[in-house]
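Hi,

Apologies if this is the wrong queue. I'm a grad student, and the batch job for Mannan endo-1,4-beta-mannosidase from Spirosoma sordidisoli produced an output file that my downstream script rejects. I'm not sure whether the problem is my script or the file. Here is the sequence I used:
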Amino acid sequence: MSLSSFARPRPELIDKKATPETKALVRNLHKLAKKHILFGHQHATEYGHGWVGEPNRSDVKSVVGSHPAVIGVDFSGLSGRPPQVIEKNKEQLRRQIIDTYNRGGVTTVAWHFSNPVTPQTGFYWNDSITAPAVRHLIPGGSHHAEYKSILRTVASLAGSVTGADGKLAPMLFRPYHELDGGWFWWGKPHCTREEFTSLWRFTVSYLRDSLQVHNFVYVFSPDCLYKTEAEYLDRYPGDEWVDMVGVDNYADFGRNGRYNLAAGLAKLKIVSDYARKAGKLAAFTETGLESIPDTTWWTSALLKTLTAEKMQLAYVLVWRNDSRSPTHYYAPYPGQGSATDFTRFYQHPFTVFETDLPRLYRRKKWLIF
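Support response: The file is valid. Your script probably expects a header line. Output copied below for reference.
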């Protein structure tokens, strides 16, 4: 059966008590994805190439005059630190999320979660000292109570991001990303399929049903280590536990000088096709080319891939611009070699930046531009 045979259902949130703004966001992303894609950048308004913490600044805005439509933040600072540091991190996150919402943009949340069992190892896996943790966080595990406490911290932040309109800002919550790799402690070599899906389902149910968090859209995003839909879904927790499906893929888009755009496209198409069948949103949740040495990468690699095969992806996000490193950046800054091509990418009618956005958090009808 061809995909055209499927009447794509409108995505329905797995949280039946989701806020009206969260429901409107999902509905409007679904509409936009039919003809456009939102551009995102991790930590875009927190810091950039050579600067930190300047109001209403982003490297993307400095180049094209608009912030990205999607701003990435990280919940990494909400655990494994002294209470006063966690509170400071919560306040910084709250300000970023509210500011993005007030401007009409979208917040997506990564979670580089420090291992609660061996916190000294952080979020990466270290063969010599990191302990398997997933089995200990799920119900019945030795650190389950601690995990519930961490989730209560997450919930307290989620319940405090009130915009200028008095409404809670929705967030695309993307925990346990790149789960098919081995570099994070929640990765495939370090837990069974059953342990991982149990962790995911408990996380969603505890936040949604016990802690009454109703402004999250739950995003499942493995790395690009699959070639078939079955491999992609190997650790998928089930349609009733996921709102959006995505993929992180740096490897096929020029990392270490190796391009395999055909493979990257095939993997994105698997994600888009599955979303279409299952009534989910789809996204290109992480990508990028560090230092962007290819000055036409934006149009010749990224845009070329995104516009192929009639895929429907809600957004594409590139990784952060470190404030101190001269080489660790994934979006251009003024004078960077790819800035001219990035401007062409920005001007293309397919791409959507913050100043292009309709009112995403309202359900009233609007025209696609």
